[in-house]
From TrEMBL:
PROSITE patterns: GNAT. It comes from Nocardiopsis sediminis. Pfam families: Acetyltransf_3. It is an enzyme of class 2 (transferase). This is GNAT family N-acetyltransferase. One of its GO terms (molecular function) is acyltransferase activity. The keyword Acyltransferase applies. Its EC number is 2.3.-.-. Belongs to the acetyltransferase family. RimJ subfamily. It comes from the Bacteria. Keywords: Acyltransferase, Transferase.
Length: 220
């Protein structure tokens, strides 16, 4: 078992928090995903263990058990996103590779009720900084459907580079979908991504919060 340095960990910036997913999150996870089914469906990978709409808790408990096991083996860091302590979504740094790569994927989704408050970019910045400067990763990618303009704006605001199109990368909403690869490395944010995001947020402090927009797909 290869545990990740700095995991488990709880992180926070203002009202936005990241904490490790717990089995007892199954109820909040079910309620949030059912209520947001139409909001999430166009961007979510199609896999039965993570249903968008079901009355049963069993699939959610099974999913949480599986991703917590991955975390124990050093393959992922699955967080609940919170806003003022309330469950608001999920963010996972997954597909962690060590050796000469030291890379991972970031995926997330947010409750539509919390869109427009800067929750998503803040949560991603927290996760990226922890992954780079505590865990020791070098590169983090985000795969986003070209049609998901709101999520692309989040990546671009944070300074992720667009690196090209991956044809038919993931099965989403009933078909194999193309994705744009966005990436960021430690060299891009020597002072930290959160610090850069704070500066950008402060530069427009008179114009209201950045919109979170549509969710970026959670990696399976």
């Amino acid at each position: 078992m290869n545990r990740i340095r700095g995991w488990p960990v709880t992180l926070a910036e203002g009202p936005v928090g990241l904490r490790p997913l717990r089995l007892r999150d199954a109820v909040a996870l079910r309620e949030t995903r059912v209520r947001n089914a139409d909001w999430l469906r166009p961007w979510e990978p199609t896999h039965p263990e993570m249903p968008l709409q079901t009355a049963s808790l069993t699939p959610y408990i099974a999913m949480l058990q599986a991703i917590r096991a991955e975390a124990r083996h050093g393959l992922s860091m699955p967080w609940a996103v919170t806003y003022n302590g309330v469950f608001a979504g999920q963010l996972t740094v997954s597909a962690i590779v060590w050796g000469s790569a030291r890379s991972a994927q970031v995926g997330y989704w947010i409750d539509r009720a919390y869109a427009g408050r800067g929750v998503t970019p803040t949560a991603v910045a927290l996760a990226v900084d922890h992954s780079f400067f505590t865990v020791g990763l070098h590169r983090i990618e985000a795969s986003i459907r070209p049609e998901n303009r709101a999520s692309r704006r989040v990546a671009e605001k944070l300074g992720f580079r667009e690196e090209g199109l991956r044809k038919r990368q993931l099965h989403i909403d009933g078909a194999w979908r193309d994705h744009l690869c966005y990436a960021i490395t430690t060299e891009d944010v020597p002072g930290g991504l959160l610090a850069r995001w704070r500066r950008r947020r402060d530069d427009v402090s008179g114009s209201g919060p950045f919109s979170d927009g549509a969710p970026q797909q959670e990696r399976p």
